[in-house]
Amino acid sequence: MDLPGRETDSMNYDVLVVGSGIGGMESSLKLGDMGYKVLLVEKEASIGGKMILLSKVFPTLDCASCISTPKMAAAAHHPNVDLMVYSEVEEIERSSRGTFNVRVRKKPTYVNPSLCTGCRQCETACNVAVPDQFNASLAARRAAYIAFPQAVPKKAVIEKEGSSPCTFTCPAGIKAHGYVALTRSGKYDEAFNLVLGETPLVGSLGRACYAPCEGECTRGLAEGAVPVRRIKRFIADRYYQGHRQPVYSSVEKTRGHKVAVVGSGPAGLTAAYQLALKGYEVKVFEAEPLPGGMLRTALPSFRLPKAVVDRDIENVTALGVVIETGVRVEKIGRLKEEGFDAVFMATGTNKDATLGVKGEKLEGVRGALDFLGSVNLGAEPSLEGKTVLVAGGGNVAVDSARAAVRLGAKKVIIQYRRGREDMPAHRWEVEAALSEGVDLQAFCSPVEFNGENGRLAGVQSVRMQPGEPDSSGRKKPVPVKGSEFTTPADLVITAVGLSPSTGDFEKDLKLNGNGTFKVNPETLQTSVPYVFAGGDAVTGPSMIVKAVGQGKRAAYFIDQFLSGESLEGADYDRRLGPVDQKAVLGRQESLSRLEPVAEKEIPLAGSKGGFNEVEMSLTEEEARYSSGRCLDCGVCSECSQCAASCPAIAVDLGMREEKRDLEVGSVIVSTGFKLFPADAKPQYGYGKYKNVITGMQMDRLLAPTRPFNAILRPGDGKVPDSIAYILCTGSRDKTVGNPLCSRVCCMYSIKQNQLIMGSLPLADVTVYYIDIRAFSKGYEEFYNQAGGMGANFVKGRVAGIDEQENGNLVLTYEDIDGGGVIQKAEHDLVVLSVGILPNTDPFGLFTGVELEQDDFAYVKEADEDVNPGKTSIDGVFVAGTASGAKDIPDTILHAGAAVAQAAAYVERIRRGK
Length: 913
Known about the structure:
Blueprint: E1 13-18, H1 22-33, E2 38-41, H2 64-77, E3 81-84, E4 87-94, E5 100-106, H3 121-125, E6 129-131, E7 140-142, E8 144-145, E9 157-158, H4 165-169, H5 176-184, H6 188-196, H7 202-208, H8 212-215, H9 228-242, E10 258-262, H10 266-277, E11 281-286, H11 294-297, H12 306-317, E12 322-325, H13 332-337, E13 342-345, E14 351-352, E15 365-367, H14 368-376, E16 387-391, H15 395-406, E17 411-416, H16 427-435, E18 439-442, E19 444-452, E20 455-469, E21 475-479, E22 485-488, E23 491-494, E24 498-499, E25 531-533, H17 536-539, H18 544-562, H19 581-586, H20 620-628, H21 641-645, E26 658-669, E27 673-675, E28 692-694, H22 695-702, E29 722-729, H23 745-759, E30 764-769, H24 779-789, E31 792-803, E32 809-815, E33 821-827, E34 829-834, E35 836-838, E36 846-847, E37 876-878, H25 888-910
Parallel strand pairs: 1-2, 1-26, 2-3, 4-36, 10-11, 10-13, 11-12, 13-25, 15-23, 16-17, 16-23, 17-18, 26-37, 28-34, 29-30, 29-34, 30-31
Antiparallel strand pairs: 4-5, 5-26, 6-7, 8-9, 14-24, 19-20, 20-21, 20-22, 27-35, 31-32, 32-33
Helix pairs in contact: 1-2, 1-25, 5-6, 5-9, 5-20, 6-9, 7-9, 9-20, 10-12, 10-18, 14-15, 22-23, 23-24
């Protein structure tokens, strides 16, 4: 409603209240009752502040929730009060007319609040546990959570810090963190289906992916990365064992368009799969007799069994995708004539690059792709008793060498022009080749192939040495003069690179200088609008997982194109940025050393003709253990189980933050206080000894909504028999920069003493103190009452705490009443009565004008006796403990003073005074 005489203006709200503790709620309700429009902003997911988390209030021992909850409900439903929870005020600027321009950032909750019913199904389904700040980190909550049972609003929030580095690094956008978290929970089918949502090649990537995700794993900064790829293999093997055929069938063709895919490698298969899921009719054309591209021709069976490739391909054909093999597409126009509305060119890099040295055309000199393709088709003859030399240092070179060993070669040599540490091949594959007897000759390179009667007889090589750095930053290898030597050889395999076969299309499509298709790097659209290209035919030789990513991207933009949507500015990659790995490590209270599971291969054991798979799969126990090492870097793992479980379809994982610019008439700062960090007194062992806790943690153990069913000490769940309190932890202490008395510590500790003696009547409670501040009405009686109930008050200064083997704690203290004698006492549980510190956050909110702080870093009141709540900025007021330590009644009174002044200021602004 409007107040009498009020003039209309452009203000969005009369008053902005920052912080929704008891002071903020009281301010908002009083202003709302007076008819002012209020915006109440709270950074947490629920209003209520710290009071709602308490057990009882002192000295009356009334239920804290019983007092707070009605105020929370009133604030949430007041017609003149708007709530913005899970939001933060970023900037406040005073305008020339005395109002305030405010920017508020509404953090994404990833749940639509208008649909969420608070049923907590998402919380039940979530696989990520994090410390519960609403239970003072005594217990865990899920990444999807409702703050606490009395939360207002009672809406779910999904916590995301950003993308986990593994997920962000994956070129295919596969949610590595998600399937690792699902594996940890034993949800293997769900883990498989999460990967399947991105690509059909789950089994192949579980074996042949070079796992860039593992290179970015935060756990790798400790004792070793999580074996993300091998976990993927485990879930694929387990799934395929139980599902010999896909459990789904053809998708209904709803889009009315046909798409041709040229090439059935990783990019082509992934694009076909994604397009079929969207309802397109898709046909794949493959020139080779069998589909799979490089998966089939370039990777030997001991690394990637062809049965796995076949089962992956069935994931595609089960959707109704048709794959025609033995068909070479040479004219794109013919596809258009055949009724295809879009074409995806995924022809790969199927030509071996050459060394360009004399004798390269001799019989017995072959490219690695030609050699491996022949091996995979079973057409390669035995190499029994022969010497094979492989030129190159990548994975293809190592695969070729290991294949030659299995074909019976008596000697296999790899020559690489740089050092072993510079080899592009994976370390583990190089080590496996060496263990199988392959001879690695680093800093060597062939310069000529010698022959007799047109056939290879030997290889002339030269030794190399590091020179000046080249464009890649590595030292360029240069020949050592006079170091030439000859190696007799029956077969040379050159593995120095691959190139695309795109010559047939150079009249139709623009090509780059290296023969790859020229495309828009964002959309993958070629020079012909209806033709898209991706994979190695665009990037050049690359990783399988990168080709998969190209196929996914192409499918997205082909869908945009055929739907008539603009390709420019399309929001394809909606991932959040990666979280900072150091921040992830920093938030770990402790990091147990969990050694990674060793990589294991089945020894060749002299069986030269065997192409059986060599890498051993993780056992279920190893997979669960390995996934349990994950640090949940991004918090939410993006496993999508919350979305699948939500009956209201309220989960929106694509939600993004919003920023609102508002104009308000006045501001009340009610940002409360911060608790003293107990680990700043290291002599007390907080964070080191599990049975040393803070007063807030004890309040949670005593509260009706406590995390456990009883009062238990955290170290071992034992019901404590002897509990000690150390008063003034961080208060009246110049050594930690807090010389002030926090006022409430004595009384909240005595409150807890009485509650403990009521709940645990046989327990002994001892309070170590310097003096007791019982400064308000009823507090002295409250103190005496605790002593009468059996609390033992010891005037003594505690010097340190040591832990016993049984988890008990020995306090060393100065017995002041006993003449200053040093004493020791043993207790089950120690509670540190931590003090209050100023919350300095509001000082960074204002631009153009300074919000002054007092000598102790609280918000300074201009004249707390005459104008309590008035700050150094005209129109800005402070309520509650933001201006200094107060108990609850004083906070409520102080809020009333701030409200009166804010209302008066708004009226002056409205009247232009």
